[in-house]
Amino acid sequence: MLIGTYRHSVDAKNRMRMPSKFKGELGENFVITKGTSNNLFVFSAEQFSAVYEKLMALPLFDEEAQKPVRKFLSSAFESEEDGQGRVLLPKELIAHANITKNLVFVGVGNRVEIWAEEVWEENQNADTDFNVLAKFGV
Prior knowledge:
Layout: E1 2-9, E2 15-16, H1 20-26, E3 31-34, E4 40-43, H2 45-56, H3 63-74, E5 77-78, E6 87-88, H4 91-96, E7 102-109, E8 112-116, H5 117-125
Antiparallel strand pairs: 1-7, 2-6, 3-4, 3-5, 4-8, 7-8
């Protein structure tokens, strides 16, 4: 289970370290891709495969369905740690998430989200209505 919030930073070469609390569950070759709210999604290879299978079931010739599939999959990459345990974030993902220096890693059950600290703080200052979860049966 991926839960909790951790703070790290990206270095001058756009490298970051995944918090050790998440590394065990994500495995060695986790997948990073664009998220939904100017953040990044990080999946274990197994969880990414499950998402991938659902995406492949969408109608091939439905442009409305294929646009987000294209964006999601074209920005995905398998992580590769260097000898010091750092992962290089591609410039496209850095730009999507507005990352400059400080990162917030958030465990949200089946994935980790990576946020630029400023974007995360802004998001957290917005009102959250937990009652909306009731419409999803929680």
